Structure formats: C-alpha cells, structure tokens
Recover the amino acids of this structure.
C-alpha cells in the first residue's frame, strides 16, 4: 500500500487517489494471506522443521499434532494451483510471477536445505522471499491493469533486500536451541552470540541512516528509523535471553516497517 500511496516516487501513477487505492486493500490482504499460507505450509511440513518447531514453536499445527505431514502435503497439492490462480486474478502476470518466484525461493530454502548449511545463503533466500512479498503486494495495490512500479521502486526494493540480508539473523538469536538440534549453521551457532549480536547492532544503525539518505529526507525523516534502530541495537546487545530476543525480533519487524514507510515522508 505504501508503494501505491507514494505516487510517482515508486509507481507510474503521478496523482494517486487515496480512496481508489484503499479499495485495493482487501485484494492486497488476500494476495498476502494466500501466498503466505502456501509458503508457511511448505516451511513447516518437513521432518527437520517439526523437530525444530517442537522446541522453538511447539504451538504450530504439526508439532502440536493438529496436522500430519501427509495432510500438509495434500493441502499443498490443492493450494498451489489455487494460489497461483488467485495471484494471477489479483495481480495479473506480474503478481503471478512474484508468487512463483517466492515458491522457488521457498523450495530452495526448505527442501534443498538452503536455510541450514550456509548462513549467507540462508540470509539471501530470506531476503529474496520477503522481497517477493513486498513486490507482489505492491503490484496488487497499484492496480496492475492501470499502473505499475517504476524504476525507483526496483532500486528501493533491492536496497531493502540488502538490508534484510545483512540484518535478518536477528531471528536466529531466540531460535538457537532448536537450530542447534536441527543442525543449522546460523551466525550465532558458528561464530558465537557476540559476533551475531554486534553484526545486527552495527548494521541496523548504519541502515537506519542510509535508507532515509536514499530518499534525501529532512532531519525529521531520519528520526523514526534512527530512534527505533538504536533501541533495537541496544536491546540486542544488552538483553540476552530467549524472551528478550523474541521481542527484539518483533522490534526488527517494526523497524523494517518504518523503513518501508520512508517513501511517504
């Protein structure tokens, strides 16, 4: 929705109509929900995922035995064509391409073990997947039949993808026990907590400055990302327990949300 409301900054629509764009909100929610459902089942259905989730997220359907692996596989068989059709109807060819790209990255991340063997590959695949969500939702929000994302939108999405790649290891801090049992090679498990925490703290502060600089914002435009970024960085360094790390991960999501809002400033 931010992309659509930003007008010519990110789209080919130089005079966006707020009410007209708001009408697309249900379509955006449906696109995100259906695509996320497909990705979530793909992510949680593997035996290794159930082992990890039994420790880190035991409330999920498979470790809680509310759903079996066979049932999850059967759901995917039905959902894949339905979600692809939904993506096409909501976002046209571009919306469908975003969904297909996401499923390719999801397959590499889950089935091919891209999330487990190399933390660099893991972070890149995370960034690619989240960027697909951003691009697909933006395409639906702008109204694919009338307008499209412009060149600056692609630059901006690429920059945000780089931000995610360099900071998404924040999610690995509260999940160390489950990742260790699964055999994942994440930054905190390979290089230790100190390296992982400082890698998050430093890059978050740097990106909190560079992202508003990309849009050449005024001093006030720097305040939200910098303030949230400093709080997040301080938490990651000083508060070192599972519960605090879970909150820091949620704050990372809030920080990313602030970055996504910058084109509106």
């Amino acid at each position: 929705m931010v992309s659509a409301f930003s007008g010519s900054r990110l789209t080919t629509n130089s005079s966006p109509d707020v009410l007209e764009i708001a009408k697309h909100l249900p379509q955006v929610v449906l696109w995100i929900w259906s695509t996320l459902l497909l990705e979530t089942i793909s992510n949680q259905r593997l035996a290794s995922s159930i082992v990890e989730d039994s420790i880190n997220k035991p409330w999920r359907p498979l470790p809680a035995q509310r759903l079996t692996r066979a049932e999850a596989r059967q759901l995917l068989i039905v959902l894949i064509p339905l979600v692809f059709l939904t993506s096409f109807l909501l976002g046209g060819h571009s919306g469908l391409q975003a969904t297909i790209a996401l499923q390719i990255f999801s397959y590499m991340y889950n089935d091919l073990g891209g999330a487990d063997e190399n933390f660099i590959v893991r972070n890149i695949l995370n960034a690619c997947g989240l960027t697909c969500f951003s691009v697909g939702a933006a395409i639906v929000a702008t109204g694919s039949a009338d307008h499209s994302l412009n060149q600056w939108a692609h630059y901006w999405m690429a920059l945000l993808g780089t931000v995610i790649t360099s900071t998404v290891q924040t999610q690995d801090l509260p999940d160390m026990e489950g990742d260790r049992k699964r055999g994942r090679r994440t930054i905190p498990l390979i290089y230790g907590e100190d390296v992982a925490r400082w890698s998050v703290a430093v890059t978050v502060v740097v990106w909190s400055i560079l992202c508003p600089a990309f849009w050449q914002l005024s001093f006030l435009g720097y305040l939200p990302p910098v303030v949230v970024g400093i709080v997040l960085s301080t938490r990651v360094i000083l508060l070192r327990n599972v519960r605090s790390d879970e909150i820091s991960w949620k704050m990372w999501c809030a920080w990313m949300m602030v970055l996504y809002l910058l084109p509106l400033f």
Q: What stands out?
A: The chain has a mean pLDDT of 90. The two ends are 14 Å apart (CA to CA). The CA atoms of residues 41 and 75 lie 8 Å apart. The first helix runs from residue 2 to 5.
